Amino acid sequence: MASVILLAVGLSIVYVLTNHLLRLRKNVLAARKSGIHYIVVPVYFMERWWLIGHRLLFPLLKKLPRSWTRWVDFTLPEFTFDYRHEVFKRVGHDTFLTVSPGGMVMYTCEPPVISAITTRRNDFPKPTHIYTSLDIYGKNVVTTEGDVWRKHRKATSPPFTEKNNHLVWDESIRQAQAMLSSWVGQDGQGHQTVDRLMDDTMRLSLNVISAAGFGRRMDWPTSETQSREDETGYIDQSKIKNENRDIDPGHTMSYTYAIHCLLDNILLQFLLPRWLLSKIPGVTAKKANEAYHEWGNYMRELLINKKADIESGVAEKETNDILTQLVKQQLIDTDAKKNGQLIESEVLGNIFVLVLAGHETAANSIHFSALYLALAPETQRRLQKDLEQIFQGRPPSEWEYDRDLPSLFGGMAGAILAEELRLVPPVVGIPKSTMEGVGPQKLTVGGKECLVPANTYISLCTGAAHRHPDYWPTAKPRLAGGHTAHPIANIDNDLEEFRPERWLLSESPDGTTRTADGIPIETLAKEDDLGVNESSDTSDRLFKPVKGSYLPFSDGYRACLGRRFAQVEVLAVIAVLFQNHSVELAVDKYATDDELKKMNNDEKAEIWHKAAEDVRELMLNGLGVIITLQIRGGTVPFRFVPKGQEKFPDNIDEIWKKNHPDQISNKGVPGWSSWAGAPQRESGSGAFDLFGALKSQAK
Ligand code: HEM
C-alpha cells in the first residue's frame, strides 16, 4: 500500500514538473519570437501562492547563495518601484519580458511604448480578472473592458463637470480649514504634534467625495471625539461624529461609521467570499460584514430618495453632485429605456469605485506633498510667496474657483502636486495586457518592430518612467541629508529628489511664479463620448513631459476619470494649509520644545537631521501597495505652525551638510536588494551585482 502511495506521489510530482517545463518551454519560444529582451524566472508574479507566501520564504531564500536567488526581485509585485529606473538600466532595455511557466509579463518605462499601449485600447486591454474583487456592489467602470466598459464610461463621465468641480473646490476648502484647526489647536499656535496626517487626509478626501459625489456632507469630528476608540475598541472614534445621533432609522451604524468600517477592512471585503465573512467569529469580521450591508443600504436609500425627489420635482434644479447626475441620466432619463443604461446595482458599483478610486489617491497626494514640504523648507517658503501673490491676503471665504484655481494650477502649488505625483504615483504598475483573447500584438520596442506574445500581462512602470534620465531635464543631485535619495537609482542626477522647481517654466524677478491666465480647457476626445481627456496633466505654464513619460493619472482611453476632481481638491487643500501656516517635522523623539528653544542652529540641525533621516528611511523602505502606494511602515509626526514662527531655519539641511562634509557621498550601494535586508548605505564593495548575471542570461 505504502509503495502505491509513494508511486502516486512520485508520478504526481513528475507530472507537475513536466507540465511546468513544457509551459516554460512554450513561453520561452514565444518570448524568443517576440524580439523583446527577456529574462527567465521560475515563478509568475501573479501566482496566488507566491503573492501571499513569498515573504515567508525570504528567510530560506536568504540562506541560499545570492547567485541562485537573483530572480526573486523580478517576481516581487513592486520591484520596478523599489529599484526605479535602475532595473531597466541594469537589464539594458527600457522594455523587457519576464518568462515563467505561469505566464509572461512585459515591463516597460519606454515612453513611446507606453504611449502606443495606452492609445491602442482594443489591442492592449486591461487584464480585468485582477479587478473582480472590486465588484462587491456591482460591475463598474474600473473593472470592465470592451463594450461593457464603454457603457460604464459613457454613463459615469458626464457628471464630472466644471459645476461639480466648483462643489469640490468649496468642500475641499471647508474641510481643509476644519482639518487645519484640529491640528493647530485652540490658540492656533500649533504647539501640538500631529501624528495622524495620513488618517486625517483620508478623512478629508472621503468627506469631499461624499459631499461632491453624493451630496452627503460629513463634518469634521469635534475635539472631544478626537482619537478615542468606540465601545467595542474596534474603530478610532475620531473618524466618526455623533455616532448615536446620526444612525438613521432602520440602520445599525451611522453612514460615517459604515463607510470608515467598510474602507478600513477593504482587504477582507476583497479577499473573502461574502458567505465566509459572515461566518467568521470576532469583532473585525462581524463589523466588516455589517458595514458592507449598512453602507450598501444607505446608498440604495439615497438612490431611491434622489430618484423620487427628481421625479416629483422636489430636488433642487442646480444639484451638481455626481450621484444626482447619475440617477438623472441613468435611472430617470430613460428615453424609452435606451440601450446601454446602467441598472441600479451598476450605479451602486460605480459609486463604490468612485469612492475607492477617488479618496485614497487624492489623500496620498496631500499627505506626501506635506511630507516633502516638511523636508524642503525653502520650497515651502516659495509656495507661500506664491500664495501671497495669488490671494493678496484674501481669506479662504473669499477665494474663487474661476479666478484662483488657474493661478494655483500654474504656480508652485501645481508644481508641487506634479512633482509629488512624479515621485509617488499611486499606481506604480498600470496594468494592461494582450489577454482577453486579443492575441499577439505588433509593437515598436526600442525602435524595432516586435510582437508582444498573446496572454502577456503588461505593467506600465510609472515609478521608472517618471525618473527616466533620457526624458527628464536633470540637475546635479543635491544630496539631501548628505546621501543620495535612493541607494542605487539615479545617483548622478536629481530625479529621485523632490524639486518642484523643475516644473516651473517662468518666474517673476521677485522669485514668484507668473500666475496663469487660464487653466487648460479639458479637451475631450471626439470619439464615443467617453469623456477621454486629451489635455495635459499639468498647466500650460509648467514643464510638459514627453508623452508616455509621465502618467500618474494613466493616459488614453482608460485614463483617470477624476483627474480634474483630484487636482481641484489637492490644490485647494494645499492653499488652505500653507497660506498662513508652515509644516515642520516634529522632533519630539529627539528633543523637547524647551530644549529646542535653547539650541543654536548647528545643534538644531543635528536634531532635524535625525528626524529627517527617519522620514527618508520610511519613504525608502516603508512604502507599499494595498490599493495605492502609501506609507505602510509607520507614520511621520508633524507640527503645523503659524507662518514666520518656524523653529528651524530654512537652510537647515545645508547647515547639517556644511558641518558634516565627511558624510556627504553620492556613491550609493550597487547591490542594494530590498527583499534581502535593509540597504547598506556605506559601501558598495563586495556587494553582489543583482542584475549583472541576468543581463547575460537573456537571449
Ligand atoms: C491624485 C489623485 C488620483 C490619481 C493619481 C489617480 C490615478 C488614476 C490612475 C493611474 C488610473 C488608471 C488605473 C488603471 O488603469 O488601473 C485611474 C483610473 C480611474 N480613476 Fe483616478 N486617480 C486619482 C483620483 C481620482 C478621483 C478623485 C476619482 C473620482 C472621484 C477617480 C476616478 C477614477 C476612475 C473612475 C478610474 C477608472 C477609469 C476607467 O477605467 O475608465 N480618480 N486613476
Automatic annotation (TrEMBL):
CDD domains: CYP56-like. Keywords: Heme, Iron, Metal-binding, Monooxygenase, Oxidoreductase. The keyword Iron applies. Pfam families: p450. Heme binds at residue 560. Residues 219-245 are annotated as: Disordered. Its cofactor is heme. The keyword Nucleotide-binding does not apply. One of its GO terms (molecular function) is iron ion binding. Belongs to the cytochrome P450 family. This is Cytochrome P450. It comes from Knufia fluminis. The lineage of its organism: Eukaryota, Fungi, Dikarya, Ascomycota, Pezizomycotina.
